């Protein structure tokens, strides 16, 4: 990618403790690895991303995540999703034009969908962009670097979604004829998602 095209970083938030599930969902088996390995592999395969940062819980995950070139960082202490976001933002290089925020627990969020969102942002450079899955907003959430200060000040669960609501008039929504990728919040969610890929 040439510098004039813009530099976009992928930020995978994988520091959650999965309290509703009762175990770390990042380490659940998926394909030839884990749920987190799937998220990292799909994101690392996006040609339009210059940097990928993966935010992990404090301490070591077992098994350790598989990475080719992504950078791994750890949160200093447990907290809401915004704590992971802050840790990821601190790890980004200075010269970034946009940040694509990605969950670690949506295996259906694949390289093609992430690439579509990043290419769409590069074409029009909106303040923020989301994919719209048959009318339902979903990841990745892409924010212009001009919003880093606002992102760094966010606190609490769903804080990024509230920011998008506040930015409503300047958020670009890219429509895709695909169901909204599902989170893994419970064991039933995990089993249901596994059943769709086997």
Describe the 3D structure:
The chain is of the alpha/beta class and 198 residues long. It has a single domain (3-197), classed as Alpha-Beta Complex (Spore Coat Polysaccharide Biosynthesis Protein SpsA, Chain A), CATH 3.90.550.10. The chain is built from 6 helices and 9 strands; from the N terminus they run E-E-E-H-E-E-H-E-H-E-E-H-H-E-H. It has helices at 35-44, 81-91, 111-124, 148-152, 159-166, 187-197, and strands spanning 8-13, 29-30, 33-34, 49-56, 71-74, 98-103, 128-133, 136-144, 171-176. A hairpin with a 2-residue loop joins strand 7 and strand 8. The chain is globular and about 40 Å long. The model has no long low-confidence stretch (mean pLDDT 92).
Give a summary of the structure in a few sentences.
The protein is built from six helices and nine strands. The chain is of the alpha/beta class and 198 residues long.
Helix/strand layout:
Blueprint: E1 8-13, E2 29-30, E3 33-34, H1 35-44, E4 49-56, E5 71-74, H2 81-91, E6 98-103, H3 111-124, E7 128-133, E8 136-144, H4 148-152, H5 159-166, E9 171-176, H6 187-197
Parallel strand pairs: 1-4, 1-6, 4-5, 7-9
Antiparallel strand pairs: 2-3, 6-8, 7-8
List keywords for this structure.
alpha/beta, Spore Coat Polysaccharide Biosynthesis Protein SpsA, Chain A, 9 strands, 6 helices
The average pLDDT score comes to: 92
CATH level-two architecture: Alpha-Beta Complex
Q: Provide the helix percentage.
A: 25-40%
> How far apart are the first and last residues' alpha carbons, in Å?
35 Å
CATH homologous superfamily?
A: Spore Coat Polysaccharide Biosynthesis Protein SpsA, Chain A
Q: Over all CA atoms, what is the radius of gyration? A: 16 Å
Classify the secondary structure makeup into a structural class.
alpha/beta
CATH topology call? Spore Coat Polysaccharide Biosynthesis Protein SpsA, Chain A
Give the CATH class: Alpha Beta
Largest sheet composition: 7 strands, mixed
Task: Name the beta content range.
Answer: 15-25%
> What is the spatial order of strands in the main beta sheet?
5-4-1-6-8-7-9
Order of helices and strands: EEEHEEHEHEEHHEH
Question: What's the total number of strands?
Answer: 9
């Amino acid at each position: 990618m040439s510098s004039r095209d813009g530099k976009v970083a992928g930020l995978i938030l994988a520091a959650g403790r999965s309290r509703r599930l009762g175990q770390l969902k990042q380490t659940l088996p998926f394909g030839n690895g884990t749920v987190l390995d799937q998220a990292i592999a799909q994101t690392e395969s996006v040609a339009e991303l210059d940097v990928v940062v993966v935010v992990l819980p404090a301490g070591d995950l077992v098994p350790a995540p598989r990475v080719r070139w992504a950078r791994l960082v750890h949160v200093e202490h447990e907290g809401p999703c915004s704590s992971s976001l802050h840790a990821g933002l601190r790890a980004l290089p200075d010269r970034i034009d946009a940040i694509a925020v990605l969950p670690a627990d949506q295996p259906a969020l694949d390289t093609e969908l992430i690439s579509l969102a990043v290419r769409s942002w590069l074409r029009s450079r909106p303040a923020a962009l989301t994919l719209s899955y048959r009318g339902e907003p979903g990841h990745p959430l892409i924010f212009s670097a001009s919003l880093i200060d606002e992102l760094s000040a966010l606190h609490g669960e769903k804080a990024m979604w509230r920011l998008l609501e506040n930015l409503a008039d300047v958020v670009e929504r890219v429509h895709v004829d695909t169901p909204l990728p599902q989170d893994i919040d419970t064991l039933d969610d995990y089993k249901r998602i596994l059943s769709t890929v086997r």
